[in-house]
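Give me the 3D structure for DUF1640 domain-containing protein.
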Amino acid sequence: MDEPTLGEVVRRFEDRVVDLRDDIQQLGRRLDEKVDQRIYDLRHESLSARVTTLETLREKDAEKLVATRRWLVGAVIVPLVGILLPVVILLVRGA
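Predicted structure for DUF1640 domain-containing protein (95 residues):
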């Protein structure tokens, strides 16, 4: 068996050190991109609060729409029918 020379052992060792340094730098970059759990929780709570607010506003808008329809029927359509129905009945009987 051939034993590696001292120069070859040093070269291999330096290659491993360079690989290890690159791995540590890559790990550092990945850790820099990771979001802290507390920040994640705060963002999640904020998003949940916004969704709850939007749902509440949507429900209020739906209630306003129903109220507007009721007002339209009560204030416009019912009196209009009350005025036009006798006229229609008179026209039909007169014909």
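The chain has a mean pLDDT of 91. Let me know if you want a second pass.
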